[in-house]
Amino acid sequence: MRHNSKFISFIALVFLFASCNPLIEEGVRKKDLKKDIAMKTDYGDIVFRLSDETPLHRNNFVRLIKKQVYDSLLFHRVIQNFVVQTGDPDSKHALSGVELGNGGLPYTVPKEVNEHLFHKRGALNAAREGDDENPLQASSSTQFTFIQGKIYNDSTLNIAENRINYMLAYNRVIRKPENKQLYDQLRRLQTGKGAADSLSLVAAEMKRLANAEAAASPRYRIPDDRRQVYKTIGGAAHLDWSYTVFGEVIRGMDVVDKIAAAKTDKLDRPLKDVHILSVKFVPRKKTK
């Protein structure tokens, strides 16, 4: 009888815990969303916060942490004054010099571009395949970057703004039903099913259509407050609206800078491997 009482008490505690920490969806509980994330690397710790404005990316990342997907992976793509990228599962036991960046789990995460989240220094950006292969701009299941970025001036921001408008127009062009035949031809040629000179002609026609679309469409302007951030803190402005930002670094940008300064090969992989040692949830501290 005493044993049964203990069992009943245990069950009661389980239900109490569950009610205090309800399941948001499979693998994600409410308390998970109130913590920050600490990534221990060979160069030190990076602490970052996932955004509640991108719940699909947030919840996906939470599940990956719980499954320890990121432990022992490499930073496989490092470009100083731009990004440091990680999350390729194939990097875990990769030999030196092997090209990385094509690995992931067998799904993608739908695009969650948000007008409040942009590619300032310290942003977490979801990696993805390019628009030709991925016109819906879905994110990689596992790969992401920390934005190190650069400081802009008005001139370089205008160049970034032009690129944003062109990429928005290009994406609209390849998704229009009337361009399906041309787009299908482009994809066949890109996968080696045709002559290289034909690919150049089709790509040029796509570019012409995109420029015409951009000229005929309302122009996106980088807001003044965002321009000020890019001119003071820095970032990668040209990625806005085409890639999902789903979090930001809270502490440890000096570690990102150290990783970004690593010497790399022609594929942007560090010559000396930079590992993720562990990724864990940590209590959230108030930011200033």
Could you walk me through the main structural features you see in this protein, from its secondary elements to its overall organization?
With 288 residues, this protein is of the alpha+beta class. The chain has two domains: 182 residues, Cyclophilin, CATH 2.40.100; 81 residues, no CATH class. The strands form three sheets. It has an eight-stranded antiparallel sheet. The chain has a two-stranded antiparallel ribbon with strand order 1-2. Strands 7-9 form a two-stranded antiparallel sheet. A hairpin with a 2-residue loop joins strand 3 and strand 4. Helix 4 crosses helix 5. The protein starts with a helix and ends in a 5-residue tail after the last strand.
Q: Could you name the CATH homologous superfamily of the largest domain?
A: Cyclophilin-like
* Average pLDDT: 92
**Which sequence of strands runs across the widest sheet?**
5-6-10-8-11-4-3-12
Terminal CA distance reads 55 Å
The shape is globular
| Sequence stretches where pLDDT stays below 50 over 5 or more residues | 7-18
> Helix-strand pattern, N to C?
HEEEEHEEEEEEHHHHEHE
CATH architecture of the largest domain: Beta Barrel
Main structural class: alpha+beta
Q: In total, how many domains does the architecture comprise?
A: 2
How big a fraction of the residues is strand?
15-25%
Helix content: 25-40%
CATH class of the largest domain: Mainly Beta
Count helical runs.
7
Largest sheet: 8 strands, antiparallel
Question: How many β-strand stretches?
Answer: 12
Rg computed from alpha carbons, rounded to a whole number of angstroms: 22 Å
CATH topology of the largest domain: Cyclophilin
